[in-house]
Design goal:
Layout: H1 7-10, H2 16-41, H3 46-72, H4 82-88, E1 90-92, E2 100-102, E3 105-114, H5 120-129, E4 134-142, E5 147-156, H6 161-170, E6 174-180, H7 189-202, H8 207-215, E7 219-223, E8 241-243, E9 246-251, E10 255-260, H9 268-284, E11 292-296, E12 302-308, H10 313-322, H11 325-332, H12 339-346, E13 352-358, E14 364-373, E15 376-383, H13 392-407, E16 411-417, H14 421-428, E17 434-439, E18 442-448, E19 460-461
Parallel strand pairs: 7-19
Antiparallel strand pairs: 1-2, 3-5, 3-6, 4-5, 7-10, 8-9, 9-10, 11-12, 12-13, 13-14, 14-15, 16-18, 17-18
Helix pairs in contact: 2-3, 7-8, 7-9, 8-9, 10-12
C-alpha cells in the first residue's frame, strides 16, 4: 500500500534561524543599493546613469515577459510511439516535428480470457499499444478461474486479425476470438441494454432480435410446450440453465428458449443479461404495436393493415374456412390438418411477425407472415379468394420486406408453386434482385435486400419443419 502524505503536512516547516538569515540578507541588500545610489548620484553624470539603468531594467523585463509567453504556448514535442501514440488514433509524421497525418483504422470486437492476477490486463493493453491499437471500450466477465475481457478496438487498417490474436496470446490471453465491428458497437453497454429493453417492452416480437443483438452471432430456437402434432416436448427450466455454449431459458409462452453459440461459451454475465431480458418480456405479457393503416382499394373499399398475434386465432381460422382448397394448397403446398394448432404457431411472435388485413366490418381477409428460419427469413401470404387480384398481396409483401430490412436481414425467400402467378408477380414487383430455384414444381424465390445488415444473421429458428414445407420441398440443400 502506498502512503499518502496530506497536503497540509507536506510543506516544509520554517525554523527561526532561517528567518533570521533571510532578514539579514534583506538589510544587506538595502545597504548595498543605498551605497551604489549615493556613489552614482554624486558623480558628474549620476542622474543620467540612473535614468539609463531604469530604461535597461524596463527593457529587460519586457523582453522576459515576451519570451515566457511565446514558449509557454509552444506545441508539445511529438511522441513517435508508446501508448500515447496508440491512444490518439493517428500516425505521427517523422518528417515534421509535432506534425500528424490521419491514419486509416478499422473496428474490431475481441474477447479473450486472462488469469485473475494483478498485471495481466496491463500486459495485454501494453501489447496492443505497441501496434497503435486503441481500446475504445472494455467489459469484464468474471469466471471461477479467470476473467473474460471483451474489447472494442480501433486498429490500423493494415493490422490483420491473425496478428492481433498472436500479440494477445503472447501477452497471456487464451481462447481469443475476434471479428469485425461496425459503428453500432460504439454505443456503450448500458445504453445498448436500455435500448434493447425498450424495444422488447414495446413489441413481443422484438425479443429474439434483442437477444441476438445482445449475445452476438448465435442460434436461437423456441421450443413450444407441445409440438404441432400435440406431443409434449421437454419441460422448460424454471430458473434457466447455462451449460457452456448453450443457454436454456423459460419462454413466457410456456415453452423453452434455447440459445446456442458453439464458437464461444457464454459467461455468467451474459446469462444474467439474457435472463433479465426474458423476465421483462414475461412480466409485460402478450403485446403488439396497435398502430394501423387504413388504405383504399382501386374499387373504393377501405381496408385496414395492422399487426396480428395469437389473439386473432379465431378470426384467422374463420378466414381459412372461407378459402378454397386451391388457395390453401398454394399457400401450404398440401392439405392443412389441425389448422388451429398450425395458425397458433404462425401467429406467435416468437417465430416472426404477422400482418393482417381486415375489412370495415372487422373481418380478416388476408394474412402475411415474416418468419425467422434460422439464418434465413421467409415471407408467406394468404389472401381470401374473393379479395385476390386487388393488390392486397403486393401491399402485404412490401410491408413485410420493409420489416425484414429494418431488422437487418440480407435476404428474404418465398416458397410457392410455379403455377402461383400471383406470388411470382408480387415478388417481381418488389424491384429487388431475385434468385429462382425450382424442383418438381416447387419454386423458391429469394430477394436480396439493398441494405447493410446490423448483424450477419437472423436469430430465430423454427423448432422443426412445418408440414408440407422446407424439408420435402427444399431438397436443394438450402
Amino acid at each position: 500500500m502506498t502512503d499518502v502524505t496530506p497536503a497540509r503536512n507536506a510543506r516544509r516547516q520554517h525554523h527561526w534561524r532561517r528567518d533570521l538569515i533571510e532578514l539579514a540578507a534583506l538589510f544587506t541588500a538595502v545597504a548595498v543599493a543605498d551605497a551604489l545610489a549615493n556613489t552614482i548620484a554624486h558623480g558628474p553624470d549620476g542622474p543620467y546613469l540612473l535614468i539609463a539603468s531604469a530604461i535597461a531594467l524596463v527593457a529587460t523585463a519586457t523582453f522576459h515577459t515576451w519570451w515566457a509567453r511565446r514558449h509557454s504556448h509552444a506545441p508539445p514535442i511529438a511522441d513517435t510511439g508508446g501508448p500515447g501514440a496508440a491512444r490518439s488514433g493517428t500516425a505521427r509524421s517523422s518528417g515534421t516535428p509535432g506534425g500528424t497525418v490521419p491514419r486509416e483504422t478499422s473496428l474490431w470486437r475481441m474477447r479473450t480470457t486472462v488469469r485473475d492476477e494483478p498485471g495481466t490486463l496491463a500486459a495485454l493493453c501494453t501489447a496492443l499499444a505497441r501496434h497503435h491499437v486503441d481500446i475504445l471500450t472494455l467489459q469484464t466477465h468474471p469466471l471461477a478461474d479467470g476473467t473474460v475481457d471483451e474489447f472494442l478496438l480501433r486498429a490500423p487498417v493494415e493490422l490483420q486479425a491473425q496478428q492481433i490474436t498472436r500479440e494477445v496470446s503472447a501477452a497471456g490471453g487464451t481462447s481469443t476470438w475476434i471479428e469485425r465491428a461496425d459503428a453500432h458497437d460504439l454505443v456503450d453497454t448500458p445504453t445498448r441494454l436500455l435500448g434493447l429493453a425498450t424495444r422488447t417492452a414495446l413489441d413481443a416480437a422484438e425479443l429474439p432480435l434483442a437477444l441476438r443483438q445482445l449475445l452476438g452471432r448465435c442460434t436461437i430456437r423456441s421450443l413450444p410446450a407441445e409440438s404441432l402434432a400435440g406431443r409434449p416436448t421437454e419441460p422448460a427450466p424454471v430458473e434457466g440453465v447455462l451449460d457452456g455454449s448453450t443457454m436454456r431459458l423459460r419462454d413466457p409462452n410456456d415453452g423453452t428458449i434455447i440459445i446456442e453459440r458453439p464458437y464461444l461459451p457464454f459467461t455468467p454475465t451474459e446469462f444474467a443479461r439474457a435472463s433479465a431480458l426474458v423476465e421483462l418480456d414475461a412480466r409485460l405479457g402478450p403485446r403488439v404495436p396497435r398502430s394501423q393503416d387504413v388504405l383504399t382499394l382501386p374499387e373504393g373499399n377501405e381496408i385496414t393493415v395492422r399487426r396480428a398475434d395469437q389473439s386473432d386465432l379465431r378470426a384467422a381460422r374463420a378466414m381459412h374456412d372461407r378459402c378454397s382448397a386451391r388457395t390453401l394448397g398454394l399457400r401450404y403446398h398440401g392439405p392443412v390438418g389441425d389448422a388451429d394448432r398450425y395458425l397458433n404457431h404462425l401467429l406467435s411472435p416468437r417465430f416472426g411477425r404477422t400482418l393482417a388485413v381486415q375489412t370495415a366490418s372487422g373481418r380478416i381477409v388476408a394474412l402475411g407472415h415474416l418468419l425467422w428460419d434460422g439464418d434465413e427469413t421467409e415471407v408467406a401470404l394468404l389472401v381470401e379468394d374473393q379479395w385476390q387480384r386487388r393488390g392486397i398481396g403486393s401491399e402485404l409483401l412490401g410491408r413485410l420486406v420493409a420489416m425484414a430490412a429494418e431488422a437487418g436481414c440480407e435476404s428474404v425467400y418465398a416458397v410457392t408453386q410455379a403455377s402461383n402467378t400471383g406470388m411470382v408477380a408480387a415478388m417481381r414487383g418488389l424491384g429487388l434482385p431475385l434468385d429462382y430455384q425450382i424442383e418438381e414444381g416447387t419454386l423458391v424465390i429469394t430477394a436480396r435486400l439493398d441494405t447493410t445488415p446490423v448483424r450477419s444473421h437472423l436469430p430465430y429458428e423454427l423448432p422443426h419443419p412445418l408440414p408440407h414445407e422446407r424439408a420435402e420441398q427444399r431438397r436443394d440443400g438450402r
